[in-house]
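User: Structure tokens for this complex, please. No commentary.
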Amino acid sequence: MSADATAADVWLLPPRERVGVACLIAAESAMFIIFVVAYLFYLGKSASGPTPQQVLTMPILGTVCLLSSSATIAVAVRALRRGSIRAFAAAWAATIGLGVVFMVGTGREWSRLIVEEKLTPATNLFGTTYYALVGLHALHVTVGLILLTTVLVFALVGAVSRDQAGRVDALALYWHFVDAVWVVVFTTVYVIGR
Amino acid sequence: MEAQTKRTALDVMPVSARETTSRAFGRLHEWVVTVDHKRLGVMYILYALAFFVVAGIEASLIRLQLAVPRNNFVSPQTFNRLFTLHGTTMVFFVGMPMLFGFANYLVPLMVGARDIAFPRLNAFSFWMSAFGGLLLYYSYVGASGLYGDGSAPDVGWFAYAPLTGRAFSRGHTTDYWILSLLVSGVGSIGTAANIVTTILCCRCPGMTLGKMPLFCWLNLVMSGMVLLALPPLTAAQFMLLGDRFLGTHFFDTQAGGSAVLWQHFFWLFGHPEVYILMIPGWAFASEIIPVFARKSIFGYAVMVGATLAIGFVSVSVWAHHMFTVGLPSKANTFFMVSTLVVAIPTGIKIFNWIGTLWGGRIRFATPMLFCIGFLCQFLLAGLTGIMLAMVPFNWQLSDSTFVVAHFHFMLVGSLFFTLFAAFYYWFPKVTGRMLDERLGKWHFWLFMLGFEMTFLTMHIPGLLGMPRRIYTYEPGRGWEIYNLISTAGVGLQAAGVLVFVGNLVRSLGRGKLAGPDPWDAWTLEWSTSSPPPDYNFATLPTVTSRRPLWDRKHPEDPDSVHE
Amino acid sequence: MPIRHLASFVFGVSGAIFAVVVSLIAIAVVRFRSRKGEGEGRGDAGREPAQIYGSNRLETAWTVVPMLIVLVLALTGARVVQALQDPRRPAGALDVTIVGHQWWWEIRYPSLGIVTANELHVPVSDPRAASPTPTWLELTSADVVHSFWVPRLAGKTDLIPNRTNHAWIAPDAPGLYLGQCAEFCGTQHAKMLLRVYAHSREDFDRWVKAQSEPRPPSAMTPGRRVFESNGCVNCHALGGTIANGRYAPDLTHLMSRDTLASGIVPNTPANLRQWLQQPDAVKPGAHMPAMQLGDQDLDQLVAYLLTLQ
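Assistant:
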């Protein structure tokens, strides 16, 4: 019986939340890859209309903000594991703020592209693939921001404690994924694509 | 005595009816809100069975139309809808839910867990998948669109662009195809994540990955493939929706878009999808054959390795569905080689199953009969697959009834045979009663004979030049007699299925009581009662080998010594 | 043809594999079945057979042998792929462009100035001759994906919009070779039939001469007036008239064809009349609308069309 007890004692399996989010990340990555492939496939094939070189400007500020938000969310999770809810809430709110700045930047870029450069998804192949890829990423950022804000609200009313660190960490993993995807999208659209 | 302020239907019923009705509603409510993996598993399976009958009727209508040349049993438009719905239903609303149902029920039990990793996600995924199926069939009613032009989808189950574009697909037929698959795809991805997490995070103490039943390994690989293969379809479908509604040009050939791109994206999903359908079938065979041959599975580690190899290689073969598209010869050669390569681990698995049979003491109960049929038919299907992999031969065979025969040998002759075996094997565990053996044998022989009549024969018209997806054909091409035989086989298969359904219904009420372990098997689910209690295991088991019950039954020669 | 040889080879290999493995299954099933009194029931723990967990030697053997078979098949296949897909074009080849439409074949001979539909006429090509005369096909589509398939002459090649594919055929005996579209393209995919006529050199030259005679503008017969004043000219082209449409078959030499509506009914006056009056009765779902002509107009139109040799 003692052998069984030892086996049970050291029986450590990965935490569920992590594996679950990892599965989600795997699936989402597969989806993003297809949009990236479509973008690269159609590069240079637009028959008419604006080209990337003509209308795209590098979203430096947005990128810096989004990538920094990975750092702030890591800080937040570490604070939560230590048990300092205040520090957690502050870093978490900073993450949200940085994400919002990124989204505002995207919104302004799109508004410029649509109104001034007359580039819409229906304009040409560049328009189609650009809005699809960047838009899909923006959608994921938005969903992430909604989830992050929900957690922030819970934290502010005092419902978040150290015990939920695992779940909050899983959400942070999702946010890191969103940032990693931005690196890929940025490289595809603003570096390779020009 | 309070005055009743609101009268409900229950109030006007007589008392006895009121009790029965409210108990019935109570039980229905239990099932609707359940998050228990066993109940959800049963719901998946019943749902899939219902659609199996529907898709089977569609197939019968197709065969009736093709029985004789120049037939007008159904109109061309109806025929095109029939084969589109038959394919889409069988793949997404019969195959996937049936396999997810079995995995849902059995994986937690086999790994010694109390439930699946995320029970509420499990319920959500089921209802999404279920809704998807209903959405697809609602298209008969709802797809008319502005011009009264639409009905059920009629673009084929792989819906090639630009036939699915706004210009060529009027009304909302294609939109229903897209939406129903998007919705059920979300459900599939959820369940796949659930299965992966359960296997990686919920195994009982002592059950390392190397001590897990093969069933769990194969479902792990299948679920991993679902996570990676379904999203390309989702992506392509979003692109198609964009083309149809937002004026995007992903597959719009008039604006420089590429029809071939849709094919690449679809088959990037489509080929792994057919392995996703096949692998759980192999999982069933890998559990059932050992028990009825009374021997451990031959070469466990090799079986795991071969399945992983198949999983990996299968994402690199997709363009063997596109050999006639005119890809460069180097590309064609690459995909030919990768398709041939994937046949190697597949063949290894067949040899391992034979190795399990060899030297055993084979009991020919119904599950074993179906497994032997599976072995022979899977072998044949694999060989016709090799023929199709040879590119120049493929240029003659592609898009002909030869291909239709090949994949029906895979999906019916292999997958469905192992599914039937699984039904007979695990029905006692789920319901506590045995299925009738005599009816089971009738089911097997009727279905097998009918299947061979329909699909073995179907190879020949393909070799003689008959294309697929045609609603009729000219006489004088030499195809008539084979089509007639194929149609005749449908009657026998239908009879077999009727016997099967009758067996299911009858045995629910009057089957022999099964007890916990009627087959003298070795995996953890047979250590619980039949059916298992809600919580599966009173105490979580601890295992020391791959066949925990063998160890208990043979303490003088436990597996743990040999592994 | 090379495909036939490859096919026989692959059939042979597959058949041998099938025979061997099925025999193994049969032997296993017969030899190792549990016999009466030997443990049909449960709980006879002492009578379970020897538990063999695997054998590295066997696994290696039945991995290596399939690998070798696959290698042979791959090399053979690759060789034939190259021979068929990347051959050099001989100088004497005939160029034909085929454009797929929903549900008919547009056939053009760019070097000969001929445009026709649904019937492909080619010269025979003797592979052993000094200068063989295969037909080099350029394949594309005007709408959805179709596929060119004449089983006795060649494997399939798809017709894809916005893309040009190439194929070649070289019939070695005169005759009629039947084919049809092999990629689902909509309602009447089943009836998009193709007829390939292989002619001897003289017969082919004669056909070319007949087809390339330009049609001089004929007198304005009543039938021709019906043709030009109804919607026909929006879709069809007819040499010698104002009709220059590209959506529907070229009718200049309509009566030189054996069939109507892409191969599904013989080209007789009665069928022609029926087709004009009610296309949906001949080919349900066809894009040609019923022109709602009165009986007299219809007769005059048919009479006119019958003159188009």
